[in-house]
Specification:
The protein is an alpha/beta fold. 50% of the residues lie in helices and 14% in strands. The structure holds BIS(adenosine)-5'-pentaphosphate and magnesium ion. Residues 7, 9-15, 30-32, 35, 52-53, 56-59, 64, 85-86, 88, 92, 118-119, 121-122, 130-132, 135-136, 156, 165, 191, 194-195, 198 line the site of BIS(adenosine)-5'-pentaphosphate (AP5).
């Protein structure tokens, strides 16, 4: 099963990807996580990408498309994958459709005024786990439940950058939903509800599609 999770910053793409990963045994591929890994390792690509990420802009298509293609060609993707944060532009959508056919695009719809609060309260672990100080706290403050790692805040989670990311989403990424709606593979999910309610809906939707 090849699926993509769509939605604005803070919609819950990363959060929901974990549940799908556990249920169906297919990997989450987050271009944001892959880029942050390059930034952490201070590679030439990471240094280039950071300039855009810190401003809340999209990283140039050619850089992201190369990373994505390399990632989906690995062995763990033979049964499928969950794209999180890709595609984000028409150019990326074209490159993706030249390589694979998606089975479903899940569009997580969330009221905009909830998003800033979600993102500014987010805490991350380098193992990929995500928490929220208010909505989804770890059992020990500042410590990851999954691996015991120290939680941190993302560099681009400051309020002014978040507002820019939302604007970029509306202009450059949201129009893609119409493209996938026309193809008949877009499924809207109400992402304003509690985390577990949303994941139950997504999993039962994906099971139905797989029947
Ligand atoms: P990326 O890392 O993809 O960030 P994003 O799209 O802005 O999305 P987020 O990761 O902020 O939100 P999310 O939907 O995953 O929410 P989460 O589950 O964490 O991209 C970062 C940057 O990289 C981009 O700005 C760009 O520069 C670059 N980039 C990445 N991909 C690119 C591409 N394809 N092309 C070009 N550039 C690219 O949830 C948020 C918080 O809310 C968490 O704390 C969570 O615990 C909480 N939460 C989640 N769901 C709920 C709920 N239902 N109720 C209450 N709280 C909830
Ligand atoms: Mg994310």
């Amino acid at each position: 099963m090849k699926i993509a999770l769509f939605g604005p910053p803070g919609a819950g793409k990363g959060t929901q990807a974990r549940f799908i990963e556990d249920e169906f045994g297919i990997p989450q591929i987050s271009t944001g996580d892959l880029l942050r890994e390059h930034v952490r390792k201070d590679t030439p690509l990471g240094r280039e990408a950071k300039r855009y990420m810190d401003r809340g802009d999209l990283v140039p298509d050619e850089l992201v498309i190369d990373i994505l293609k390399e990632r989906i060609s690995r062995d763990d993707c033979v049964k499928g994958f969950i794209l999180d944060g890709f595609p984000r532009s028409l150019e990326q959508a074209k490159a993706l459709s030249d390589a694979v056919d998606l089975d479903a695009v899940i569009n997580i719809v969330v009221d905009e005024n909830l998003l800033v609060r979600r993102i500014t309260g987010r805490r991350m672990c380098s193992c990929g786990a995500t928490y929220h100080v208010e909505f989804d706290p770890p059992s020990r403050e500042g410590i990851c439940d999954r691996c015991g790692g120290k939680l941190y805040q993302r560099d681009d989670d400051r309020e002014e950058t978040v507002i820019k990311r939302l604007e970029v989403y509306r202009k450059q990424t949201e129009p893609l939903t119409e493209h996938y709606r026309k193809l008949g593979i877009l499924h809207d999910v109400d992402g304003s509800r509690p985390i577990e309610e949303i994941s139950k809906d997504i999993i039962s939707l994906l099971k139905k599609l797989g029947e």
